[in-house]
Structure formats: structure tokens, C-alpha cells
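FAQ: What does the model actually see?

It sees only this:
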Amino acid sequence: MAGEDQLFPDHNGFDFKSIQKALKHNRKSKSLRGASTISQQVAKNVFLWQHGGYFRKGLEVYFTFMIETFWSKKRILEMYLNVAQTGPGIFGVEAAAQHYFKKQANQLSRSEAAMIASCLPNPVLFTIHPMSHRVATRYPWILRQMNNLEGDEDIKDLLKEK
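And it is asked to produce this:
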């Protein structure tokens, strides 16, 4: 959440402020900025295909609405952590923890978790081993965001064990 969607506990699947910022940025710049929430990424990763245009984006809106309606935030986050690509041929945080750090995901340090999160959205290009420039500069930022979000009650509730 610290790296991808800090408002995840509070929105209904769509972060309209981020969407507006991305549209404004993308009109002015050659580099594209995305605004997909964790819920939208789950919709894409579980039900759809990776690339596509407006048609796929329209389906993503539909599936995002459906999963936000029928799944809890905890379930959406669990699905995200299990299906997100975290390296070349590596899917899910558990697989990434085993591959990169030779340990279970629940044993990762905050820094190790931040490194995995920093390889998103392109874990084939943004690598942990060897550490790409993007991962090296982004994971300390994610650690700071983790610290900033630590006291958020909605996030605490979401991350509580059952």
C-alpha cells in the first residue's frame, strides 16, 4: 500500500484525484503516469490481460466495481499480494521472498518488503538482484511511506491478523 495505493482502505476501487493528475500529466509529457489502484490491478491481473486499450480498461472498471462490491478489502489485498508479478516469471510476494531472500514472506524485514514493492510496476526491468537504479532509489522512499502510514487506523485494521 505504501508504494502503490496509500488510499486503498478508503476508496471504492478508484482514486479519482490520482486519475485526474495522471490525465493532466499524460497530456503534457511523453512519459506516461498510471493511476490504477490495488483493486484495479487485481481486476486486471485476475480477470483480464496485461496490455490493451480502452476496451480492456472498460472491462477493468467493471471487474473493479464487482470485486469492491463482493470482496472485502482484506481479500482484495490478499489477491494482489498473491498474483502481482514480482520478477521475471515470479508471481506473488511469497515467491519473491523465497527467490530473492530465501525466506518466507512473513519473515521479511521492512527493507526487504520495500525492495519487492519497489520493483513494481515493471519487475522485469526494475530488478532486485542485481539491484536496478529504480529499486535502489525507490525502496527508501517506500520505507518512509511505510513509516508515515504506520499510525493510520484503517491500515492497522486491514493488516490485523484474523
